[in-house]
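Memo subject: From amino acid sequence to discrete backbone structure tokens
Keywords: amino acid chain, backbone geometry, structure tokens, three-dimensional fold.
Body of memo: The sequence and its backbone structure tokens, given next.
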Amino acid sequence: MSDKQPPGRIKDISVYRDSFIGMAVLACTPFLIFGAISVYGWLAAVGLLLVWLVLLLLGTRWFMPHPRWVVGVGVVSMLCWLAVVLIAQ
């Protein structure tokens, strides 16, 4: 038997574990953004949402080529939210 697989097949999905973790963190961030609107107001929420959308695009772009970077993108999204909350208080 030949061990050949069609092109584009992933042999080991665990290589992308960091990407899945980063995307899970990115998926949690909008709940924090809209859950704390009373702390910083709608204008900051819209700004945070725009930043989050850019970070989500980066996360999807880097999902396969740079799995570890996606975790960093998720952490940056959480840190942006935390910075806005701390500045607003």
Remarks:
- Helices lie at 17-35, 37-61, 67-88.
- The chain has a mean pLDDT of 91.
